[in-house]
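Hey team,

Sharing the Tyr recombinase domain-containing protein run so nobody has to redo it. Sequence (104 residues) first:
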Amino acid sequence: MNRIRKKGARLFTKEDSSMARKMVSNVLRSIDRTMALPSVRKGAIRYCAKLGMTKEELRRMTGHTQDRTLDGYLGPGLRTTTAAVQPQADEGERLLLSAPNTLE
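Structure output:
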């Protein structure tokens, strides 16, 4: 299969990306003067983390390769260690299995 673009190549030019960022930034500031792209990015990452996305999923979504970088967006309350992932999953499964079945 032929690729349209090379692996790792930019999807948009720097000029296109810059123009899109400026447009979105202007819209955000027209809604609320304190809003900015970094705050929207951080909010989206934290929202996805609260929904239960794993660090691996969050890194894939954001393009981060290091947990340390991602942790800067998550803040102390949402950071999880690799060691905590399996116990959290086990506890979630236990809670689901012990919950009454309301579909019957």
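Residues 3 and 9 are 11 Å apart (CA to CA).

Ping me if you want the raw files.
A.
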